[in-house]
């Protein structure tokens, strides 16, 4: 088996993995970065999820490098896309004019910007990227990880990887069971966490839904796909709390749980300038077409786009029949989630109610080219390749950490005007409502207002293992607080801190645990973070 080594090994090339790599590389370290799918960027790219961000993102509350990513995406559009003059002059350009985010964009643009950010380190040889490789085994010596084996996703070819520091940036915390690192899954009990939204008994198999997203436009012709094999099942499927069949425009309002009717109007020809993407004011999901729209044709020169492009990540896409973590055949369950997504598309094309009283939108065209997993395809030609490359995984395995963030730390109802708990070992900030989708245990949405919060270093340090660091959604949160800490800018912040911490520990010849518990080391590390553009505290603002 061939072997490779570096100073920092990062397994998983999502947002956390890329941020960790950039941080370590800027510090002068050599880095090995592996990724299971064809694109780097995780939830922003291969999972095709536009950035879920807080209301102040244009001004503060993210790291400088995350802001550089956002600026780079906008500059890519200005440099290469046929924007209208008005769109080109707009500082806070929102290419898709989607309501979910102030920066809705095509996934491929983020791929281009992330690759450009990494390009000089690839050129110098200090960064080596292995795609598509997934971890399959690991070696340990006491409380240290000594090596990780990765296998090519398609051929099975294996490579042995070693480094003094190993970062787990996989979407589901894949290295935790492979290395014997203690972790939790699913819902902790109220007795363990004291959280008011937790159940009386722990439910380790109760995890948030996964979703396989896809992109569509609406152009002339009949683009109806072949009827999916599982369509009849999903067409009749009625979750007990849904208020209707799952394949409908009716579903629970996440914040109130009242049954809401959403509209769907392809190409409404709305003015992009009138879109107000602010979660404080409006969740934005009233019209599903504009909710996560990633290309608004009126932002581009006339004729450049025949249609808007709509990113489908809607309630009806949530697969919560079974978990995909710590099960015998996770790929089969991801396959079932893909079948649900194809069924949603087929229902939209054939049976969805229209405002004119008719049914079906056969002019909806699956845009696998937009998600990097197929072509713009017409009926009869579409397989699973037209969907996003990877499932959108909301909840990971989570380390048993030196400190676990609980609901009481950030719930607006509990904390009120005191704001979220301020940690002495803060290594970043984030903000999002505690947003839990329906789960495999039969739970409805859990949606709790949150205070702007901090990221404690203790949540990044396993209780026992010394040289393995989480670099994504696998930090020390609970099932509940993961709902706030799982979004794009927080994952990036966590990854960036993990990369900087690995460098700091290598340079000082200390452990991450020593950094947290030694006041002088902690102060030095926090100063290093601040110098790198990582914000550690919030100004005086209120949550939502």
Task: List the SSEs and their pairings.
Layout: E1 3-5, E2 8-11, H1 15-26, E3 31-34, H2 64-80, H3 85-89, H4 107-124, E4 127-130, E5 133-141, E6 144-152, E7 158-162, E8 165-168, H5 175-179, E9 183-184, H6 190-193, E10 210-211, E11 214-218, H7 231-236, E12 250-252, E13 259-261, H8 288-291, E14 293-295, E15 309-312, H9 330-350, E16 364-367, E17 376-377, E18 392-393, E19 398-399, H10 407-410, H11 412-415, E20 426-430, E21 434-436, E22 446-448, E23 453-456, E24 468-470, H12 482-485, H13 488-508, H14 512-517, H15 519-531
Helix pairs in contact: 1-4, 1-13, 2-4
Organism: Micromonospora andamanensis
InterPro entries: FAD/NAD-bd_sf, NadB
Protein name: FAD-dependent oxidoreductase
Textual characterization of the structure:
With 544 residues, the chain is α+β, with helices and mostly antiparallel strands. Helices cover 26% and strands 17% of the residues. It has helices at residues 15-26, 64-80, 85-89, 107-124, 175-179, 190-193, 231-236, 288-291, 330-350, 407-410, 412-415, 482-485, 488-508, 512-517, 519-531; strands spanning 3-5, 8-11, 31-34, 127-130, 133-141, 144-152, 158-162, 165-168, 183-184, 210-211, 214-218, 250-252, 259-261, 293-295, 309-312, 364-367, 376-377, 392-393, 398-399, 426-430, 434-436, 446-448, 453-456, 468-470. The strands form 8 sheets. It has a 5-stranded parallel sheet with strand order 4-3-2-8-24. A 5-stranded antiparallel sheet has the order 14-15-11-16-17. The longest helix is centred in the middle third of the chain and has 21 residues, at 330-350. The N and C termini lie far apart (52 Å). Residues 377-384 have low confidence and may be disordered.
């Amino acid at each position: 088996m061939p072997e490779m080594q570096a100073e920092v090994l990062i397994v998983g090339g999502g947002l956390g993995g890329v941020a960790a790599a950039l941080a370590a590389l800027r510090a002068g370290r050599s880095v090995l970065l592996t990724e299971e799918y064809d694109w780097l960027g995780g939830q922003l790219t291969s999972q095709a999820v536009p950035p879920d961000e807080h209301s102040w993102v244009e001004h503060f509350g993210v790291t400088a490098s995350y802001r550089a990513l956002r600026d780079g995406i906008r500059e890519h559009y200005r440099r290469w896309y046929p924007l209208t003059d008005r769109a080109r002059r707009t500082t806070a350009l929102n290419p898709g004019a989607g309501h979910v985010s102030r920066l809705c964009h095509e996934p491929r643009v983020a791929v281009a910007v992330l690759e450009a950010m990494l390009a000089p380190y690839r050129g110098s040889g200090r960064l080596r990227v292995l795609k598509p490789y997934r971890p399959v085994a690991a070696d340990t010596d006491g409380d240290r990880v000594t090596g990780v084996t990765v296998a090519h996703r398609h051929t099975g070819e294996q490579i042995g990887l070693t480094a003094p520091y190993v970062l787990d940036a996989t979407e589901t915390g894949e290295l935790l069971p492979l290395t014997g690192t203690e972790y939790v899954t699913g819902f902790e009990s109220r007795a363990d966490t004291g959280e008011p939204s937790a159940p009386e008994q722990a439910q380790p198999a109760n995890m948030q839904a996964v979703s396989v997203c896809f992109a569509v436009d609406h152009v002339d012709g009949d683009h109806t796909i072949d009827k999916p094999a599982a369509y009849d099942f999903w067409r009749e499927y009625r979750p007990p709390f849904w208020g209707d069949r799952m394949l409908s425009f009716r579903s629970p309002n996440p914040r109130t749980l009242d049954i809401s009717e959403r509209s769907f109007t392809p190409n409404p020809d709305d003015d992009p300038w009138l879109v107000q993407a602010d979660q404080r004011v409006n969740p934005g999901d009233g019209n599903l077409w504009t909710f996560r729209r990633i290309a608004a044709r009126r932002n581009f020169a006339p004729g450049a786009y025949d249609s808007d492009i709509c990113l489908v990540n809607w309630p009806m896409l949530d697969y919560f029949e079974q978990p995909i973590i710590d099960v015998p055949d996770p790929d089969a369950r991801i396959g079932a989630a893909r079948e649900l997504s194809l069924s949603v598309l087929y229902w939209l094309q054939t049976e969805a109610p229209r405002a004119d009283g008719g049914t079906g939108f056969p002019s909806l065209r699956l845009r696998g080219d937009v998600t990097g997993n197929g072509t713009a395809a017409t009926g009869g030609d579409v397989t699973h390749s037209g969907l996003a490359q990877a499932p959108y995984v909301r909840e990971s395995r989570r380390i048993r950490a030196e400190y676990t963030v609980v609901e009481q730390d950030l719930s607006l109802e509990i904390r009120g005007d005191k704001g979220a708990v301020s940690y002495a070992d803060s290594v970043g900030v984030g903000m999002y409502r505690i947003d839990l989708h329906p789960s495999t245990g039969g739970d409805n949405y859990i949606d709790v207002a949150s205070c702007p919060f901090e990221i404690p270093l203790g949540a990044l340090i396993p209780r026992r293992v010394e040289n393995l660091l989480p670099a994504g959604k696998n930090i020390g949160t609970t099932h509940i607080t993961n709902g706030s800490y799982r979004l794009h800018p927080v994952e990036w912040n966590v990854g960036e801190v993990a990369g900087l911490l690995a460098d700091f520990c290598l340079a000082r010849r200390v452990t991450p645990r020593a950094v947290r518990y030694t006041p002088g080391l902690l102060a030095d590390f926090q100063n290093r973070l601040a110098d790198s553009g990582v914000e550690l505290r919030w100004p005086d603002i209120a949550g939502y």
